[in-house]
Amino acid sequence: MNNFELIDKFFENSLTSKEQRSFNDLLQSDEEFKKEFLFQQDLKKVIAINRRDELKVELEQFRKEYQGKSKSRFLFNNWLIAASIALLVGFGIWFVKDSYFPSNEQLYVQNFEPYRNIVQPVVRGENPNTIEHSAFVAYENKDYHKAINLFNSVASPNKIHFQFYKAMCFLSLNKTDDAIQTLLPIATAKEIESSSKNFTEMANWYLGLAYLKNDNLDKALSQFSIVANHPDHTFKKEEAKKIITFIK
Predict the structure, then answer these.
(1) Does 61 map to a domain?
(2) What CA–CA distances, in Å, run from 194 to 12, 160, 184?
(3) 169 CB neighbour count, 10 Å cutoff
(4) What is the pLDDT confidence band of residue 208, given thresholds at 50, 70 and 90?
(5) Which of 103, 106, 224, 238 could form a disulfide with 208 if both were Cys (CB 3.0 to 4.6 A apart)?
(6) Could you give the number of structural domains in the chain?
(7) What residues contact residue 21 under an 8 Å CB cut-off, 6+ apart?
(8) Are 166 and 180 in contact (CB under 8 A)?
(9) Which of 51, 22, 52 is CA-nearest to residue 37?
(10) For position 129, which CATH number holds?
(11) pLDDT digits (tens, 9 = 90+) for 81-102
(12) Residue 205 to residues 180, 197, 241: CA-CA distances in angstroms?
């Protein structure tokens, strides 16, 4: 199966588990694949908007023509309902459904991106001989298995920022349960250093995505509500509100 077929099956929501793993891997590792996916996603949105506008025009034309002929408001309303259904079928209900009611997996893929390295940005030419630096080099190179092993080997592996980036690795490797177990203590931490508060804020967003990927909508909704409504949080607030409208 080529990449175009894989993307088509994603939008048709018909990927097998094996194909879904391949799709997720390509989305993280292949820039050309990601560009093609985003292009097709944007294209579908544009077509959906155009078709919606065309539908409105058609219905308005039918309304004007039929309303002038019909003396019965009841018959007119029934006709309008029938015409709306017929036009929706003509435009393709499947397209409207995919465009406006994405699956949990589609929502996850559209919103997940591993958070950038802000702890030890890798500078070309520098090569500090530390495990921490090597861990973030592996992370930036998307060598997530190696990064996890190195994050586990640092002097203080339980520090929040190491745990957070380890969770990013788990999500990138589709190890969602491991990611949830790693993110949960960060997202629910009560007493943390001020320098780590941003990681707690971000952990709530990624924990919501992890629950969404696992189809645990109750917990996903709870997490996204925290992100959307917390007075001191700004990270992904609008994105969380949008997801809530789809899963509530």
Answers:
(1) yes
(2) 45, 12, 18
(3) 26
(4) very high
(5) 224
(6) 2
(7) 174
(8) no
(9) 22
(10) 1.25.40.10
(11) 555 555 555 554 444 444 456 8
(12) 11, 13, 11
